[in-house]
Design a protein that fits this description.
The structure is a single chain. The chain is built from 26 helices and 17 strands. By secondary structure, the protein is of the alpha/beta class. The strands form four sheets. Strands 8-7-16-15-14-9-13-12-10 form a nine-stranded mixed beta sheet. Strands 3-4-6-5 form a four-stranded antiparallel beta sheet. Helix 3 (74-89) packs across helix 6, helix 9 (327-343) crosses helix 11 and helix 16 packs parallel to helix 19. The longest helix is centred in the N-terminal third of the chain and has 38 residues, at 142-179. It is globular and about 110 Å long. The N and C termini lie far apart (109 Å).
């Protein structure tokens, strides 16, 4: 037992060895590391604010030595800055380099550690307070407050609201003033009292100096001095005292202050100066006064905590956006083009290559005297020599004195939606409805404004990228617009392409009242929705007429400026984007019931913010009429099989020479631009919709005006006395055939169309057949003759 006790007491003696102490040399080394690391952090943070968009895609490629970041400290600086500023505390992260530098200096010179610990504690308090404050006041700029400031604001606002967070920030500011700067009300009053006394003393001294200088000037005026410019001497009247003259022609006069009898005695009396308060200009009208008191109306306040989708939700497909130049391929293609043209005695003065993601453009300057049509006719011969699919000749290129030959690259590059959304051109786009389609041949991001198109027609063969193009359009708007600013009406006859957007129903979608699904797949509901949009259009035009403005932008600006009274029916009007996938199927099944409202919307809706995006395989006359097509100047053509189809879509050839997989031509009535459409995959769209759908939303989806079909018969009363004499016979025919249509009654009972139509309406009012469903037969609700007899027996009672 004694031995065991001895073993326990032995380790208790060397307690001093556990204390961690650094030698002087180690302190100098550790201090140097801290100082240098703080400098590295500082330059990384400064560079991050200029290069973060370019380096966003490289954060996951840290181990790849071939990738280079734009940050001053390369990938290390980009990663550390992203962690501290974007995912951390924003601008307040600059306090970390400052604290590290101070720590390094303390270690380097061996100063007391207590002061250093105090600085770290106060530094941490400042970092948290500044991050929350910037997250509160600049919540639309995530780089200022960082993710911590943003999330803490969001958390606090859920429990205390905006006013509660503001009060907490004010308390934190007072705490810092009192504890760190020893602030108190007594100090403040004494400070202003001292300032007041010093101002009065300065005022007194200024008055005495002014009187002294005035008397000196009067004395100088009594003694005239004349300077001779030729001899550089002064001619002075004879005085009692001699006046010394310096070489610099500066005259110094010894002036004796004259004695003044009966000089008034100035007492040290403090004088208060009352400042004149300028009157503020009052607003000239009621609207300006409301704006001055409450600020402009903000439609986004209802969802003030809404967070826009982050760039990390999108994947980086393929490379990071950089195009690999294959010099051998360029030289080989150039030689083949020159050789082919030389075989037909066409000389080339100059040739230039522009490399794009999927296509390389060779610009040719032919020699004098060469006809352009001669080169244009050699399209197939050049394609044969290059052994490439989809050679397209542009003769001439608009705005240039050159002829363009577009040759597909052997190794094409996928343009990811992430690279397009993260581009500066899209992020800084000052547009109403910006859409990023992809990248051009010169590898520039192509961004257009849907509000200026004003409608878009997309066409192309099956499987060439129409649905991906629609997803790219919707993704662009989701990344740029707030739910209060834009609403979507989605029509998807295929029932599988746009179903992912169901998750953002209460944020971005619009639908008819008492409708279960916001995404329309049933043709009958599509007809009612299109007619409802026509009613919405007429209502909006009436509001614009009352407001005396010409378009939606002017109306919303006037409403935000509080110049329109909500009591008169005025309200903020969001943009409405109608997206129809597979329009041809809709026309085949619904016919003119769809054509008429679409034609009205295409002609009139652009001024009031309703824009149409229609996708179809081939916009032939029987699918899209001339009236509709004339109002779709903006068109996109994916790959088609023939030149006739290309001319049908674009009114120009070229779409038949595309290579597919998102390769497309865009025109807005003048030039045709070749673009590689950005690729956004289904899982990416799912992540974006889940990110938006998980946030607080409006109570319901945006409701369109109510519409009931003219031919639905719902307005008819079930009045037995007004029924047709052939009503019972018609009911029996319908129940036996289990097919509800006016044409069946016409054939079986030998009636005219008008009478058969009235009987069908009466059968619907009686609950025997269902409502009108376009070209489809009505649904029969009565299964057999026994059930029909029961209905008639109940009515007779």
């Amino acid at each position: 037992m004694a031995k065991k006790k001895a073993k326990k007491t032995k380790p208790s003696t060397p307690k001093k060895e556990l204390s961690f102490k650094l030698s002087k040399q180690n302190k100098v080394l550790l201090g140097s590391i801290c100082i240098l690391f703080s400098i590295a952090l500082f330059f990384s943070f400064v560079s991050f604010f200029f290069t973060w968009q370019d380096d966003q895609s490289l954060l996951s490629e840290f181990t790849n030595r071939n990738e280079q970041a734009s940050n001053l400290l390369n990938k290390f600086g980009a990663s550390v800055s992203h962690f501290f500023i974007y995912q951390g505390f924003g601008v307040s992260s600059f306090i970390f380099p400052f604290l590290l530098c101070i720590t390094g200096l303390y270690l380097f010179f061996g100063l007391d550690k207590k002061n250093m610990l105090k600085k770290w504690i106060w530094g941490g308090i400042f970092i948290i307070w500044i991050s929350i404050a910037l997250g509160f006041f600049a919540f639309k700029q995530p780089l200022l407050g960082g993710l911590v400031g943003y999330e803490m604001n969001d958390f606090l606002q859920d429990y205390t609201g905006k006013i509660g967070v503001l009060l907490l920030l004010i308390f934190g500011f007072i705490f810092i003033l009192v504890r760190l700067f020893k602030f108190s009300p007594d100090v403040l009053t004494s400070y202003f009292k001292d300032k007041k006394e010093s101002l009065s003393a300065d005022f007194k001294s200024d008055t005495t100096k002014e009187s002294t200088t005035r008397s000196k000037l009067e004395k100088e005026e009594e003694t005239p001095i004349v300077i001779n410019t030729y001899t550089h001497k002064e001619e002075i009247p004879p005085l009692k005292k001699e006046i010394p003259i310096t070489n610099d022609l500066e005259v110094s006069l010894p002036i004796e202050e004259p004695e003044i009898k009966n000089r008034p005695v100035v007492d040290d009396v403090a004088m208060e100066v009352e400042t004149v308060v300028e009157e503020k200009e009052e607003p000239t009208n009621k609207a300006e006064k409301l704006v001055a008191d409450f600020g402009e109306f903000d439609p986004t306040l209802e969802l003030g905590s809404y967070k826009f989708p982050i760039i990390d939700l999108l994947d980086q497909h393929g490379s990071t956006g950089s195009i690999t130049i294959n010099q051998e391929e360029l030289e080989e293609n150039k030689n083949k083009i020159v050789e082919t043209l030389k075989n037909y005695k066409i000389g080339i003065a100059q040739i230039k290559a522009t490399i794009g993601p999927t296509v390389t453009l060779y610009e040719i300057v032919p020699e004098a005297g060469v006809r352009i049509s001669k080169i244009k006719n050699l399209e197939d011969d050049i394609a044969l020599s290059l052994a490439a699919l989809g050679i397209r000749i542009i003769a001439p290129i608009p705005g240039k004195g050159t002829i363009g030959i577009e040759v597909p690259n052997k190794n094409s590059t996928i343009v990811s939606m992430r690279s397009v959304i993260a581009s500066k051109k899209f992020q800084d786009a000052e547009m109403e409805l910006p859409i990023a389609f992809g990248k051009t041949i010169s590898n520039e991001t192509f961004v257009v404004d849907l509000a200026k198109m004003p409608h878009l027609l997309m066409a192309g063969a099956t499987g060439q990228g129409k649905s991906v193009g629609l997803n790219a359009v919707l993704t662009s708007l989701l990344y740029k617009k707030h739910p209060a600013e834009v609403k979507f009406v989605l029509v998807d006859p295929k029932k599988v392409e746009l179903t992912l957007f169901n998750k953002i129903e209460r944020h971005f979608l619009a639908k008819l009242p008492d409708t279960e699904e916001a995404i329309l797949t049933d043709n009958g509901k599509v007809i009612n929705t299109l007619n409802s949009l026509c009613i919405e259009m007429d209502d909006r035009y009436e509001l614009l007429k009352k407001a005396m403005v010409r378009n939606l932008k002017e109306y919303n600006h006037k409403f935000k400026s509080r110049k329109l009274n909500p009591e008169d029916g005025h309200k903020f009007l969001p943009y409405i984007v109608l997206v129809i996938d597979e329009f041809a199927d809709l026309i085949m099944t619904a016919g003119k019931e769809v054509e008429t409202p679409i034609a009205r919307l295409a002609q009139l809706a652009r001024a009031i913010g309703i824009h149409l995006i229609i996708a179809t395989q081939r916009p032939s006359v029987n699918v899209i009429t001339g009236i509709i097509k004339a109002n779709f100047p903006a068109r996109i053509a994916f790959r088609v099989t023939s030149k006739i189809d290309s001319r049908t879509i674009l009114d120009a050839a070229g779409a038949d020479q595309l290579i597919g997989r998102g390769d497309m031509l865009y025109t807005q009535g003048n030039d045709v631009t070749r673009i590689q459409c950005a690729f956004v995959d289904t899982p990416e769209v799912e992540k974006i919709t889940e990110f938006i759908g998980s946030q607080r939303a409006y109570p319901e989806a945006h409701e369109l005006p109510e519409y009931s079909g003219e031919e639905s018969g719902t307005s008819l009363d079930n009045n037995i006395s007004e029924r047709d004499s052939m009503f019972r016979d018609a009911a029996e025919v319908i129940v036996i055939a289990q097919q509800g249509s006016a044409s069946l009654i016409q054939r079986k009972l030998k009636l005219g169309y008008n009478r058969a139509g009235r009987i069908i309406d009466q059968l619907e009012a009686a609950g025997i057949v269902g409502p009108f469903e376009g070209s489809k037969a009505r649904q029969v609700y009565v299964p057999d003759m026994i059930a029909l007899e029961e209905i008639f027996n109940n009515e007779s009672k």
